[in-house]
Amino acid sequence: MIKKEMIAMLLAGGQGSRLGVLTAKVAKPAVAFGGKYRIIDFPLSNCINSGIDTVGVLTQYQPLRLNTHIGIGIPWDLDKNEGGVTVLPPYEKSTNSEWYTGTANAIFQNMDYMQQYNPDYVLILSGDHIYKMDYEVMLDFHKANKADVTIATMPVPIEEASRFGIMVTDEKNQITEFEEKPEKPSSNLASMGIYIFSWPVLKEALYAMKDQSNLDFGMHVLPYCRDNGKRLFAYEYNGYWKDVGTLGSYWEANMELVDIIPEFNLYEEFWKIYTKGDTIPPQYISEDAIVERSLISEGAEIHGEVYNSVISPNVVIGKGSVIRNSIIMSNTVIGENCTTDKAIIAEDVVIGNHVHIGVGEEAENVFKPKVYGFGIATIGEKSVVPDNVQIGKNTAISGVTEPADYPEGLLAGGGVIMKEDGEEA
Known about the structure:
With 425 residues, the protein is an alpha/beta fold. The chain is 16% helix and 28% strand. Helix 6 (199-209) crosses helix 7.
């Protein structure tokens, strides 16, 4: 049996419903980020940079693109004979077949995978956050405190604390109590959903709680550990960490990349972010084009103007078009004389000529106001927008649309067009 000191289990099965049409056909960790990356590249790169060479990736919702992206793990140097990266979808068992019903249930269903490495420690990660973190430093903290469970935490503004699991600690960082999304939080130390468990403790807790429906770490496993005298510690992290779970935070995190001195630096030599790199030609910027403060990926063709935007590989922007404060994902074609302001346009979209996106006043979205807000116009993948239309703010489009879908050539602010071929989002 191969013995590993620490293995990582990366939870990447989430739908990410608050990203609306962006995740209608793809799991949230596989959504593009920063031009050429996908969200899952960040925790995977953290693993390899922290010296962890055995990672189980637990998938569930729309896993195809995620599986293709990860492949056998070559970009992260995780193509190993012993360990490496393994994609772990739910599978049929002899007695019953069940989906992963909660974060801890997903880990419990993969007990055999973990057991084969007989690790001393198991690192549990979520696949949908943007950050850089050395898990080895967290492991040293875990060992130094003789902890059974270490939870990565970070201080958040107290008014936002009720969105998180909150830890209350003593002067030695030992957790005395925790509150799952409390209305009146007693502290501002939020759980980041990153845990190190000593393997025997994780095993004991999962077996003890296995019959719990929707078995979850925050709701069930951590309370069990606390109530059974385990030593729980909070490891405080003070670097950049972004949960890109809403269109607003996703847009913001991308826009921060084009700051003159970005708070999150993709170019650090000693902490590289690895991704699956396709073989594509360099970008082309025509002599009439203007590009300011933007990320332009390989294979992009720019004939218009781009300001403060993130442009993914193989995007074409036609003559006379002006792109501002927008995220344009791979293989999307924008016609001539268009404007976009504060838009997120997904992969493989075709935008006609003379299309104006992000116009007019803000209005509340008629379909899902909590999802489609922030003043952003969102267009789902493989959508088509015809020539000569205007699209307002807080809007969502999915599918192949036609001029008839736009009364008087306009999708007003807060409006939605979801065609049959565009999945409900």
